[in-house]
Amino acid sequence: MKEAISIILVLLFAVISTVNSCPPSDRAALLAFKAALQEPYLGIFKSWTGTDCCHNWYGISCDPESHRVADINLRGESEDPIFERAHRTGFMTGAISPDICKLARLSSITIADWKGITGEIPKCIASLPFLRILDLIGNKISGEIPADIGRLQRLTVLNVADNQISGRIPASLTNLSSLMHLDLRNNKISGPIPRNFGRLRMLSRALLSGNQITGPIPGSISQIYRLADLDLSMNKISGLIAPSLGTMAVLATLNLDCNRITGTIPTTLLNSAIGNLNLSRNALEGKIPDVFGPRSYFTVIDLSHNKLTGPIPRSLSAASYVGHLDLSYNHLCGRIPAGAPFDHLEASSFLYNDCLCGKPLRAC
Q1: Which 3 state secondary structure label does DSSP give 61?
Q2: How far is CA 175 from CA 85, 154, 198, in A?
Q3: On the chain, which terminus has fewer CB atoms closer than 10 Å, C or N?
Q4: Whole-prediction pTM
Q5: What is the pLDDT of residues 49-100, one digit of tens each?
Q6: How far is residue 306's CA from residue 336's CA, in Å, rounded to a whole number?
Q7: In angstroms, rounded to a whole number, what is the distance separating the alpha carbons of residues 308 and 280?
């Protein structure tokens, strides 16, 4: 009798274990994904053994109800003990296998900062209906962003920064109605920013610096009410700065430096919510608008390396705060105003203009 009970208990435990483990199809997809990658130093894949990929497989977590694989979280730079023991950051080569798309319940894919992963983003990733996070920063991934990326209606984070991605920003990207964080920095992306970029109404950060983007700044961007950080620096963007950018309610950082932007500085930018403004290394002309006031609070305002003329606005003294100011390499002329914020600025903020004088430069 005792033997029969023991056998029943063993069988019951086996059934429960099977029910609570990941499906064989998910396990097979993960092993195929692993087979396309080589990680020689940390041994993070050594834990990928046994039949249950939901438990104790490094970087893998599953949905508690369905037991399907929900998250792949593999970071090459982490405070995890496996990195501390190895006294090094991660390095991985190989490519991201399309077999990852067989994990149909994936909510997040983070394969970040491995430095050596090459190949393209599998096009089939656009077919994962539950995907919320796609973070592939810090690899050597090439090719284009999948054309159908806009199908991912739940996607909130798209981060492919610091790779070698080329081609244009897909037109369908503006269909990502849930997108909050877009980071395409430091790639080889070319062509214009889609004209209807403003459809991304949930977006709070748009980081597109360090690419080869051309064309104008779409006016529709000012329709993104939640946008707080816009970085389009180090591209080939041309045209004018739309005054509507200065009317955005929560835009705090605007980096447009190192482009081919022309025209004048909109007055709206200098009396707005923007606190970090970098317009340096463009071809801006005309006078600096004399419209600073109590609402002007700048930790950084960099207008250097342009073609600005006229005097330094006296209203700068009325700004609530100016931390770093750089007006060098322009054609400014006249006396540098006295008092705050000018009394704490160094000569480097004013060098290489036509005829500025007064402290901290030579006397007038």
Answers
A1: strand
A2: 44, 11, 10
A3: N
A4: 0.92
A5: 999 999 999 999 999 999 999 999 999 998 888 887 888 889 999 999 999 9
A6: 18
A7: 11
